[in-house]
Amino acid sequence: MQTIALNDTLSLSRLVYGMWRLADDLDTSPGHVQRKIEACLDQGITSFDQADIYGDYGSEIVLGGALKAAPHLRAQMQIVTKCDIMLTSEKFPERRVKHYDTSAAHIIAATENSLRAMSIDHIDLLLIHRPDPFMDAAETGWALDGLVQSGKVGSVGVSNFKRHDWTLLQAAMSTQLATNQIEISLVTTDAFVNGDLAFLQEFGVKPMAWSPLAGGALFSETHSHIFGALERIGSAQGVDATAVAIAWLLAHPAGILPVIGTNDLARIKKMSDATRVDMDRETWFELYEIANGHEVP
Amino acid sequence: MQTIALNDTLSLSRLVYGMWRLADDLDTSPGHVQRKIEACLDQGITSFDQADIYGDYGSEIVLGGALKAAPHLRAQMQIVTKCDIMLTSEKFPERRVKHYDTSAAHIIAATENSLRAMSIDHIDLLLIHRPDPFMDAAETGWALDGLVQSGKVGSVGVSNFKRHDWTLLQAAMSTQLATNQIEISLVTTDAFVNGDLAFLQEFGVKPMAWSPLAGGALFSETHSHIFGALERIGSAQGVDATAVAIAWLLAHPAGILPVIGTNDLARIKKMSDATRVDMDRETWFELYEIANGHEVP
Amino acid sequence: MQTIALNDTLSLSRLVYGMWRLADDLDTSPGHVQRKIEACLDQGITSFDQADIYGDYGSEIVLGGALKAAPHLRAQMQIVTKCDIMLTSEKFPERRVKHYDTSAAHIIAATENSLRAMSIDHIDLLLIHRPDPFMDAAETGWALDGLVQSGKVGSVGVSNFKRHDWTLLQAAMSTQLATNQIEISLVTTDAFVNGDLAFLQEFGVKPMAWSPLAGGALFSETHSHIFGALERIGSAQGVDATAVAIAWLLAHPAGILPVIGTNDLARIKKMSDATRVDMDRETWFELYEIANGHEVP
Is C99 in contact with B281 (Cβ distance < 8 A)? Predict the structure, then answer.
C-alpha cells in the first residue's frame, strides 16, 4: 500500500484504521485486538487512529492491552491520537458540561495519559480534536511545540479546523502542523467547495478524512441512490460499494487519507480493495452529482 | 472609451461585448457578425467575451466565420475565452454527466480547439470557467503558465472563483492571474460584502462582471422596483435604465468591467451610454438599498 | 483597573464606557455628564466610546458641553469616536438614504466636526463605523494615515469589519489598524467560531465588543435561561448577573474590551465588578452552551 508523507519525519499508510469503536466490540481481548492489527498490517495499513475519548475513554486502554501482550507490533505501527474534548462521563463525575480544553496543562496531561493508556512511550501524531472557541493560541502552540521537542510526540496536527483556526494556531508555533482530520464523504461534500480542502492543498498539507462512509449512513435508505451508483461502479470492477466510496476520496488530488473503522475482521481484510479501484474524472463527478442531488453549476 | 489594464500586457475596453448568445441569433452569417463587431468597435468596445461552451460549442465557430471573412478585424480586438466546463451535448455523445476538466491535457486541447474554432492564432485572455472541485492546482497552474509561455495565450485568469480557489491556483503558478469574471448586478449584490470583490481589490485585480443586467431579470416584474428607480435616474440624465444599471457597476472603485451581451444592433450602439452616466455615492447606495430591499445596517 | 495596550501609543481601560445613549438621558447638563465621567474614572474606567451619529448627532455635543465646563477631565480620558455612517436625519434634510461615506473628504470633515463637537483637539482613536461596500481602500487608507500624521487622531481602527474588509484596508495603509469593535455577547456568539475573533488574535489585535449585554436583550424573557445561569453564578460570588456576562467576555484569551453603556450612575459604579469575577474554563463553556442552546459538537 502507498504511504503518504505528512512531513519529513512521518509517513502514514494511505488507508488509516480507525479505532473509534474498538472498545465497543464484543471481544476486546488483547488477542482479538492483535488479530485486527495484524489484519491491517497484512494489507500495509500501518497507521491507526485513536482519541482519548473514544469508547468513553476506553479505546486507548483496549489498544494498550494488545500492545502490552504483543509489544513487537508497536514498531510496525504509526499511532495517531487526539485530545481537547472533555466529555461528561461517569469516569469524570465532577465534570458538569462537555467542553474543550486546549490549555498547556491539559494537553500535556492528556498526552501523558494517552501514552500510559496505550502502553507506549511515543505518539506518532497528536491532534487537537476540535477547534476550541476559548483557545489561547500562544499557550496551545507552546504546548504542542514542547511535546514535539520532548520527543513524546513525533508530529502534531489538528482536526475539524477551519482555515482561520489553522492559521491562528500555526502562527503561534514553530513546528509545522502535519494534518487536519476533517469529515469528508459522499454524504458530506462541502469541503470540496467551501475552502476546507483548498487551504490544505495550498499549504501542501495532506488531509485525513473521518467518517469517509458517513458513519454507515451511506448504506441507509436515505442514501440508496448513492449506494446504487457505488454498487454499479463496483460490480463492474469486482469490488464492493464501500471500496468505491473510499476510492472516490483517494482519487482526489488533495491526497486524502481516509480513516476507516470497522470491527469486522472480514471487512478489515477487504479495506485495501479501495486502492485498486479505477476512478476517472467523469465518474468522480457522476458520484459527486448523485450525492449532491444536482449537477455542478 | 476608457481602457483598463489587467496587467502589463493586456488592456480591455471598460465595456466588454459578451458573445454568450451569438450563435442564438437568427442571422449568424459572417457579415452580420461583422456588423456587430464593428458596432462595438465604433464605440471603443474592443474586448469580446467568449467561452468554448457558448451556444452549445457553436459561438466560437460563428465568430470564427466572421474573422475568416474579415481578418482585418482581429488586430482591433481583444478576445477572451474560457474552458473547463464539459457540457453534455449531442456533440459529445459519449459524455455522461456535466463536469469540469482542469487537467493540463484538457486545457491545452481546449485552447487549441478555441483557436481553431475562432480562426485565430492567439487568445488574449483565457479563463478557467468554473472552480473545479477536482482541480490539481499544480497541474492546472503548469498548463496555464505553459500556454502563456508558448504565446498561444496572452494572459490567463479565472471565473467564478472564491478567494480560496484563487489563492490555491495562484500559489501554483508563476504567471499572475489577470482577472476573475464573477456575477455582479443589482440583482446579485453579495460580492460587495462577502469578500468576493474585497480580495480582488486587495490583490489589485480588476474583476469582470457577467450578467450585469441579471440576464434580463432586471427588466422582469419581480424587479420592477429596481427598474423603476433606474428609469427615474436615467430619464433625468437622458439615458435608459440599462445604462444606469451598468453605470452602477462602473462607479464602484473595484474597476469592474461589465460584460454586456445583446444581439440587437441598436442596443449595441447604445451600450456606451453607460459610461456617460453620473453616479454619485448616495445614488449608488439608493440603488443598492432598493435592490436589497432594506437599508444598510 | 487593568489597561490594555492597543499599540505602542494607546492603552485603553479594560472596560470602556459607551456613550451611545448619552444624549437620551433626561439630564444632559454638563454637571451631570461630568458626574458620569467621574464615576467611571473613580473605577479606573478611563476610556469613552463615541460616534458622530450617536444620539442623532447629539451625543458628542453633550460630551463637549461637559468637557468645556470641566476641561481638566480630558487629560484623564481616552476618547474613541467613529465615522462613515450617514444617517437620514432632520439635521441633514438633503440626505435621501442612509449610507456610508469612507471618502477622504468625508473622513477628514467628520473628524474635524467631532473635534469641534466634543471641544477637544485630539481624538485618541478614530474608527470606521461600518464596512462600506463602496470603499476605495487606497483613498480611505490615505485619509486615515494622514489624520494620524497630522496628530489630530492618535490611532485608527475599524468596527464591524470582516477579515476581508480588514486586510483590504490594512494593505492600503502605513499605520497599523488598532482595533476592530464588533458585536459580541452571550446572545451573539458567532465571533468565537466564524473567524471574526480568530483573525484578530492571529494579527495580535485586541477587539472591542459592542452590545456586550446584547443591548439589554440578555435581561428579556427570551433569554431568561441565560440570565438565570448568570444570576446563579453571580450570587455565588456576590456580584450581579451583568458582571458575570461581562466577565464572560473578559475571560476570553482574545483580550476583549467590552463597551458598556448605561445612564444609571449606580450601575456605572458597579461596572468594575465584572473584573473581579472568577470565570474558569468549564463555567465559560457552560454559559456558552446555555446561550447557544446546545452542547459543543
Answer: yes
